[in-house]
Amino acid sequence: MKKVLFIILLVLIVLPLNAQSILGQWKTIDDETGEAKSIVEIFEKEGKVYGKIIKVLNTKIKNPVCSKCKGENKNKSIINLQIIADLSKNGDVYEDGTILNPSNGKIYKCRIKLEDNPDRLQVRGYIAFFYKTQYWHRVKK
């Protein structure tokens, strides 16, 4: 009986350690060209998940700004631009938030989920039934 309780306790301790997090840095990959575009840092604040661009990988673009954005983001530097906002965890999915596409300045509903590979993140922006999916890759330090 002690052996069974020990095994159950061990499993309960080890399982949370294996749970993967979406938090950290991710290399964004353009879904049309397959090229790496930027590094986004995903972080948690007050129980919600957010993401901001911390690096643009195309060195030809100097001081990129969000020229097509509206409101407070209009002509704001893309570096440190918050592009993911207000995601909530629902099981293994983060949803009910938004994602900004700096290329066109549009804001979409957002859903994020880790793939079976914990270093691959499925990022989906959508309007109603129309969506676009990208797969981002974890940046290893």
From TrEMBL:
InterPro entries: DUF2147 (IPR019223). Residues 24-138 form the DUF2147 domain. Residues 1-19 form the signal peptide. Keywords: Signal. The keyword Signal applies. Transmembrane segments: none annotated. The keyword rRNA processing does not apply. Gene3D superfamilies: 2.40.128.520. It holds the Pfam family DUF2147. PANTHER family: BLL5882 PROTEIN, BLR1215 PROTEIN. This is DUF2147 domain-containing protein.
